[in-house]
Each structure stands twice: as C-alpha cells, then as structure tokens.
Amino acid sequence: MKKITSLLFATAMLLSIGAWAQEKAVNPSEFHGAVADKKSYKVVYQLNSDDDKIIKATMKNIMNALEDPRLKGKLQAELVVHGGGVAVFKKTNSYESQLKALQAKGVILAECANTLRERNISKDELFDFISFVPSGNGEIIIRQQQGWAIVHP
Amino acid sequence: MKKITSLLFATAMLLSIGAWAQEKAVNPSEFHGAVADKKSYKVVYQLNSDDDKIIKATMKNIMNALEDPRLKGKLQAELVVHGGGVAVFKKTNSYESQLKALQAKGVILAECANTLRERNISKDELFDFISFVPSGNGEIIIRQQQGWAIVHP
Amino acid sequence: MKKITSLLFATAMLLSIGAWAQEKAVNPSEFHGAVADKKSYKVVYQLNSDDDKIIKATMKNIMNALEDPRLKGKLQAELVVHGGGVAVFKKTNSYESQLKALQAKGVILAECANTLRERNISKDELFDFISFVPSGNGEIIIRQQQGWAIVHP
Q1: Each residue's pLDDT tens digit, B58-90
Q2: Hey, which bits of chain A come out as E strands?
Q3: How far is it, in rounded angstroms, from Cα B137 to Cα B132?
Q4: Contact assignment for A140 to C147 by CB distance below 8 Å
Q5: CA distance C145 to B116
Q6: How far apart are the first and last CA of chain A?
Q7: Chain A residues with CB inside 8 Å of B108's CB?
Q8: C32-73 pLDDT, tens per residue?
Q9: By CA distance, what is A152's nearest residue in B?
Q10: CA-wise closest residue to A103 among A69, A83, A82, A76
C-alpha cells in the first residue's frame, strides 16, 4: 500500500511539474511577430562600452539572434567594436572563448583602428584573430547602406 | 481711473505673456527636417533596460512619433522588449495604462521568449495582452530587413 | 669615439621607435570590412543624453565617420537631438566650437521641438544656428525610411 502511495505521489509530482513547465514556457504556437521569408539576413552589432554586463549581453544577443528558429543558418553577423568596446578584444580580458564561439558561427569581429590610435592601444594587446576597419562608425554606416540591419544592445 | 489702470495692466500682462509664449515656442513655420511623402511608415522600438526613466522615455518617444504631424495616422510601431526591459510587462509594475494607450494606437507589444527562459520568468507574471516572439533580437533584425526603421532610445 | 657611440645610440633609438610605431599602428593594408562603392552615403545620429561623455563621443563619432577614408566627401550626416540631449545646443554649455566644426562639414543640427515644450525650454536658450523638427523620433524614423543609416552612440 505504501508503495502505491509513493508511486501516486511521484506521478502527481511529475504531472504538476509538467503542468508548471508548460504554463511557464511560451509555447511556440503562441509565437507571433515577424515572418522570415528571405533567404538570408545580415546584421551589424555595435559595441562601444567597456561595461562587462553590456559586453556579455551583446555577445549573448548575437548568439540568440543566430539561434532564433526564424534565422538559424540564414544570418550573417558582424560585431563592430569602437570606443570603450575595445575591452572585449583585449588579451588581458576574459572574452576569448565567447568570441571564438561567435567566430565559429561566421561572425566577423571588427575593431575600429581610430580607437587604437586615439587610445594609444597597440594591436598586439588585442587577440590576433580579429580584423580591423578604418573607423567603426564608417563600417556601421556602410553596412547599413548595403542593406544590413543594425542592433545596438 | 483705477479701473482703467488695472485693465491696462492686465492687457499688458496678457500681451507680454503672449509674446513670451510665442518667442518660447517653435513656430511650425520654422520647422525643417525630413519631408514625409510616403503613405505609410513602420518602426520597431527596442527596450532592453529595466531603468524606470528609460522605460518611460521609450513609451513617450513612441507616442511622440505617432503624434508627429508628419507621421500622424501613417505610422505602424512595434515595441520589442528583451533582457531587463521585461520589467515593462510585469503585472507588479505600473506601466499598464501607458502600454494600453500605445496598444490602442495599434502598437504591437512583443516580449522575447528567450528572456523568460533565461531569467526564469513565467508568462503568468506578465500582462495577458502582450504577444511573444522567439527572440527579441531576431525580431528586430527581421523587421529591419522588411524595411522597418529602428529606434533604441 | 664617444660621438660615434652617441650617433649609433640615437640611430638605434630612432629605428626602435620606428619599429614600435609600425607595430603599434594598424597598417591600412590590414584593413578589412565593408567596401564603399556607392556615390553617396547618408546617416542620422541620435543624441538623447545630457552626459558630457556621450555628447562628446557622439560628436567625435560623426567626425570619425566623415573622415573615414571610405566615406570622405561622400557622407551627409544629421545630428538629431531629443530628450536630455538638448544640453548640446544650450548656449550656457561649451559645445559651440565642435558643433560649428560639424556644421562646416555639412552636418544638419536638428532639435526636437517636443522636447522644448515638455521641458519648458525657450529656443532663445539654444544656439541660433540650429534647426528644429516637430519630433526627434519622427525625424529619425522618416530619415531611415528615406534610406538613411542610423547610429546611436
């Protein structure tokens, strides 16, 4: 008898957890919003802050966009870094693994050369797997005029 | 005599207030800037902060855009909320009336489902008149690639 | 002998400084990023903060974009100011020379008239060489829908 009670209790637990999870999560059938009917999408992300929270949020945001079921396998992204954002590319900081994970998904990692000159930063202080653009602002503008979206988290 | 003096004084007061108001306000004839010659306009607003000032400014900005004489009756807007911005949709917060005023003007209210999962927030904690998108970042990107403008206040 | 030693020392110094400068700077041949093959580019910059650092960064960003070798002589920019950003246009503040330098390069300086009304600011408190738009948000939206890029530093 005790066994049956235990079993019933466990089943009730499982059912209630299931119900809780279902109520908690948003069911994909409830999703609304834009329909992605194009073959490919392009976006430039702007990072100009040395705030650790913003740096991490920006990298997570790019990953979320790449993993969005509507965009998966169809999105080309570029991270354009200028001003204080250069922190994300410094060897002495701890963002290497997240950056490499993004690069493995095709994300272009671009540093503003103006920022290096203005802040007297040597490119040797930065990861060697990044690329450089004359100005981050110019890059953002040209990309948009080529049809890329812009996100500044 | 005293009556006439009072009357003159009151008139002078009114005239000077009128002059002051006129000098103070920008006369519509002084407006420059873009000419809106399209039939319809579309914009997505990004909100990813839980800062009360930014939340209120974002909602006010949308309202100002909807009321801009150049856009009035021609603008479709969507508020895309992700990250900390989810605060605006929480039942325990006090933004319900402003949100409903925006919705009454056709503004789409969209919450990022990723944020709920990452922050362990149940959709029951949020107003029931909002809608959900798989990721806020994906939504912003797709909308822009469909020709919508983006504003991040 | 001492003379020769000094000369050798000075030469070694110069060479090492040269090498250091070369290593430090990003060589233009190392630039990657977007190619600017259009005849003209247009961008609207959004400023809605009274933070001195953000105000200065925004003006420097515009200048950097105008000076980007890819965009030089081909970029039309507009600075749209709303909310707290109105600080940049106040006569009592110290941004006049930078603003005039931007204006000399063709940058349109546009203040949101809504902000003046909401904050009870007289246009007489602002520099007389700026222009006004009914709403900064409307301006940003219309410009984007006319094909301008947007940057919010």
Answers
A1: 999 999 999 999 999 999 999 999 999 999 999
A2: 41-47, 75-81, 108-112, 131-133, 149-151
A3: 12
A4: no
A5: 32
A6: 58
A7: 33
A8: 889 998 999 999 999 999 999 999 999 999 999 999 999 999
A9: B152
A10: A76
